[in-house]
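Sample pair:
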Amino acid sequence: MTIWYLSAPHRLAEEHEALVALASRVSWLDLGALRPDDGGRLCINFEITAAGRTFAARLRYPHTFPSSPPSVLPAEPESWSGHQYGSGGELCLEWGADNWTPDLTGAHMVESTERLLSGEATIEGDRPGRVPSRHDMTLGQGLRFKSFRMVVTETFAEHMESLAPGSTLNAKLLWTDNDKQHTLAPVHLIPDDGEEWTDPAAPRALWANNTLYATKVWRLPDGVVAPRSTTASDLRDFMATHGYHAPSDDGEPKMDLLLTWDDAGAHLRMFSKDADETYDITVVAAKSAGRLPRAYRDLAGKSVGVVGCGSAGSKIAVTLARAGVGRLVLVDDDILLPENLVRNDLDWTVMGEHKVRGVARRADLAAPGIQVDIHIKRLAAQEASGVADGVLHSLQQCDLIIDATAEPAVFNLLSGVVSVAHKPLVWLEVFAGGIGGLVARFRPDLDPSPQTARAMIEAWCAQTGAKPPRADRPYESNGEAEPLIADDADVAVIAAHAARMALDLLTETSPSAFPNSAYLIGLREAWVFTQPFHTQVIDLGGPEAPAPPPSAESSAAGAALLCRMIKDLQDEAADPS
């Protein structure tokens, strides 16, 4: 490790000179000696006199100085300022990692410390002076040392506002533990009378694997605000004063958790079992951020069939769920095994399960409330004809079908389905060796049939003089050569492009963001790609000429057969014997 004051002694001299010069021209600063701490970081103790008080502090240079700023901390663990990272922590001064430049010195940090302490020591009315903050704390910074937090969704807030003032309810809070951090969310409310309420923003998939913790909820009377950071006895006095009545299953207000709702919003309080104290749990109010394009607003009414929930299909399905698609129809018969984890969007939590169930759960976790229909079936394989017919009928009801199998037999079957149902199709293929992939679409009345399009794509590839780099099945190599296998990053790129094309179709973007209907997407220099991210466009043209109308003779013969069939059915109905 390079030690800056050994490798750049001239900067060490400049730092010392700047500090000595500052101390010589001001009366509030006394300097100590430069010393390295146990970690080898250069430090200097100093004292600042502000508003009649002496503050003993330490200036500590980081190992990465002068690329990053020094820190100023109390010499002893003390809380000095509202601009401090915890009691005994460093002060938040005018310069930090976000605006530091190497031409600044430790003397600038010491001057900033004096301005902060003097400014806050000033009395404004009956309150300490306020020093403007250089920046706002992010939510993550504020919660860094909070072991417990509760997330309040917009739907929960709206429901609480709709309750009659003074209402009390039994409730269940979803309690999740993750690496010593505990998160709660109110998901189920049970009133003494009226309908139970379940938060639609909380995915039911979580309920089976996490604790539902019973608590009490109190919607306070209008204008009444619950006290924060109070004792248990004082809180019970407050509850009695303002008419708290326990829900029917609990005669006395003896609870471990109490969630109150007032004009300030939600407040969750944990009671100590052995002492007259309570613990306030930090509440995080979730808000709708409007992070999806306006064009996606109608996706809740759309349905998409995804055939193949492997590495590409699993990613596409979850992406569409996040985008707001209201219904997915998933078709796959495969199960998740450890070797699938290198590319599939699923993980060990669903190991050994059918992939469609795992993807359905993941979609629900990403977009609570989405409807997912699963079919543990294999198309174009050894399945009963009636079974395959049921799956295909379900796919025909979708607004879009995606073939994520890269299997020619499945593609042929789906091509017929979309042609008859007059529905669009998107298909994709990831080439071996991570060189890229293919994304293509069929739009009724705008593109040639899928079979024709595939033939055109294969003809275009043949003209290059080299076959497309497709892997053998399973992923095997010839001889002792390394197998050509695409990794997760390769699959993710091609799957993302396919999802983007699918969303373009579902939102009926006009004109389409994709001028053509077939693209070869390169990820590195190989085959037809001259460089990374080189895209080759295949012009498929428009739809084929419509088939000639049937002859008058065949139409007449068909009509006669229909009439005869109807007559036979009528006769059977009239004479059941």
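The longest strand covers residues 168-178.
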